[in-house]
TrEMBL record:
The lineage of its organism: Bacteria, Bacillati, Actinomycetota, Actinomycetes, Micromonosporales. It comes from the Bacteria. Residues 1-20 are annotated as: Disordered. This is Uncharacterized protein.
Amino acid sequence: MTEPLPDPFADQPDWAPQPPRPVEIVPAAGRVDLRGQRVLVGLPGLGWRGDLRADEKVVQNSRTYVPVIPEHEWYRAESDQVEVFAPLVPIERVWVETLGSAASTPTVDGGGLRLVSLDAPAHRPPTPVFEADSVVGRRVVHMVGGVEQRDLRAVTETYSGAEGDICVRVAPEMEWYRWAWRGQPPTTLEVPVHLLWVE
């Protein structure tokens, strides 16, 4: 008998949940609607800054700018309907986070050094929470039956839940930021780590 034994889990799609679609980063210049989009700003060869949101483009003296707001201020403006300061950034220095296709999800090689180009911002592929070193405050994706629940933040590190599962408590991002500006603790949900991915 030289044939290998069949894999008993090969036809069970829920044995290992599929990763969420990866975040891809594209130049803002090609985008029409920027309001509320997650963006990064920076200069090739210098570096990038994230956790920002964009507002609608503005044209001044034939140059196009993007009002860029720190994400916590954007959520406060949306929640409390207040105006916040938004510096104007030249559109060629703004990149937008978009969702790629599931087919373009790169495989995680198990760590190690990963070199990137300094010509544009790079983004890591989705990482299973159980492989992350720390998750508090990080953006996570909850995979429920192949459906992605995004705009969540991890509120705890991994811990042993009441049912014996290894879990992380997550909160909607709006409530995560409201916790900072109002001191109002968020509503959290206990999620087993095998259903969570760091975005």
